[in-house]
Write a structure and sequence with these properties.
This protein has 2 helices and 20 strands. It is mainly beta. Strand 2 and strand 3 form a beta hairpin. The longest helix is centred in the N-terminal third of the chain and has 17 residues. The protein is globular.
C-alpha cells in the first residue's frame, strides 16, 4: 500500500527560449511509453507535420484508457497530446479531448503549457513517474530536477473514478489531466477547463471544520469534486494509499494545488512518509516507512 518512483526519463525536458521540439518530444515519448504500462493504449504515435509557409512543426499523440469505475463498470477517456514548435510565439504543449470512434478532437483545449523560462522550474529536467502498488492505474508525473518539485500529471486509483456523461470535449464531462498547467481537472464546459478540486465538500467561502480545536487532520479518504461545476464528483478513495491532509484553520478546504502550480513536500506522520501535494489542505501519497527520494 505504498507509492514509489517507477522510472525516470533518459532525456531532459528543455523549457526556455528557442526551438526545442526535437529534444522535448523524446521526453513526451518516454511519458507515453510509461502510460502504456499503466493501461493506456497508444493509437497514434508522435505523428509529425510541418508548415512550409510558417516553418511551424507539430507532433501529435492519441491515447485512450478504458478505466474501471467506482460502480464496477467501465468508462473510456481519450486524449490528444500535441507539441507545437511555433516559430513566432515559441514552443508549447496542448492537451485536448479525443473521441476514438469518430477520431475527432474536443472544441476547447483542456491544457496549454508554454515551454518557456517562466515554466522551467515546473516542467524542465528529467520527468519521474510515480505509481501505487495497490492498483495498475494510478500515477503522477513530476519534474524533479529543479529547486521546485512539481506534480503536473495525475490519474487516480482503479475503481475510484465516477462515471462521467458526455461533454463538449467529445469524451467526458469531467476528468483528470495527465498533463496539466497547474489546474489538474476539468468540467463539462469551457468555463471549467481549468477547474480546481474540492475535498471533502464545503462551499468555497465556508468550512464546517473551522470550529474544531485541532489545526490539522489526516483523513484516510479522499473525495474529489470539480469546484465550480456543482461539485460534480470525480473520484472517491477510501482506505487506500491516497489520503487527505486538512488545514482546519483555513477558511476553505479547497484542494488549491489543482488550480495552481505548487511545490511538493514530504510529511512524516506516525512513522510513515507521505508526499504532500497541495497548498493549505493537500492530497497525501503514502510512501511507507522509507523516505521518498525525488
Amino acid at each position: 500500500m505504498t507509492w514509489s518512483k517507477a522510472s525516470t526519463t533518459t532525456n531532459s525536458f528543455v523549457s526556455g527560449d528557442g526551438d526545442h521540439g526535437d529534444n522535448n518530444v523524446l521526453v513526451i515519448g518516454e511519458y507515453i511509453d510509461y502510460l502504456v504500462t499503466r493501461g493506456w493504449v497508444l493509437a497514434r504515435e508522435g505523428e509529425f507535420s510541418d508548415s512550409p509557409l510558417t516553418g511551424d512543426r507539430t507532433w501529435l499523440w492519441n491515447i485512450y484508457k478504458v478505466a474501471v469505475c467506482e460502480d464496477g463498470g467501465s468508462s473510456e477517456w481519450g486524449y490528444a497530446i500535441t507539441y507545437i514548435e511555433d516559430i513566432d510565439s515559441g514552443d508549447y504543449i496542448r492537451l485536448l479531448g479525443w473521441d476514438r470512434g469518430s477520431d475527432t478532437l474536443g472544441a476547447a483545449y483542456i491544457t496549454t503549457i508554454g515551454v518557456n523560462a517562466s515554466n522551467a522550474d515546473r516542467i524542465a529536467g528529467k520527468w519521474s513517474f510515480w505509481e501505487s502498488d495497490l492498483d495498475s492505474d494510478s500515477l503522477f508525473v513530476m519534474a524533479g530536477e529543479s529547486s521546485e518539485d512539481q506534480i503536473f500529471g495525475f490519474w487516480p486509483p482503479e475503481g475510484t473514478i465516477h462515471k462521467q456523461g458526455g461533454g463538449e470535449y467529445n469524451i467526458k464531462g469531467g476528468g483528470f489531466k495527465i498533463i496539466g498547467n497547474g489546474s489538474m481537472v476539468y468540467g463539462s464546459n469551457s468555463s471549467y477547463t481549468n477547474a480546481s478540486m474540492s475535498f471533502p465538500w464545503s462551499a468555497e467561502s465556508t468550512s464546517y471544520l473551522q470550529g474544531m480545536n485541532a489545526q490539522t487532520m489526516k483523513l484516510d479518504l479522499c473525495l474529489g469534486m470539480i469546484k465550480g461545476d456543482s461539485y460534480k464528483p470525480l473520484f472517491s478513495s477510501y482506505g487506500g494509499d491516497i489520503h487527505s491532509y486538512l488545514n482546519l484553520i483555513e477558511g476553505s478546504q479547497c484542494l488549491s494545488t489543482l488550480d495552481q502550480f505548487n511545490e511538493t513536500n514530504v510529511y512524516l506522520i506516525d512513522g510513515r512518509y507521505y508526499i504532500s501535494w497541495g497548498y493549505q489542505s493537500s492530497m497525501l501519497f503514502d510512501c511507507g516507512e522509507t523516505a521518498p527520494v525525488f
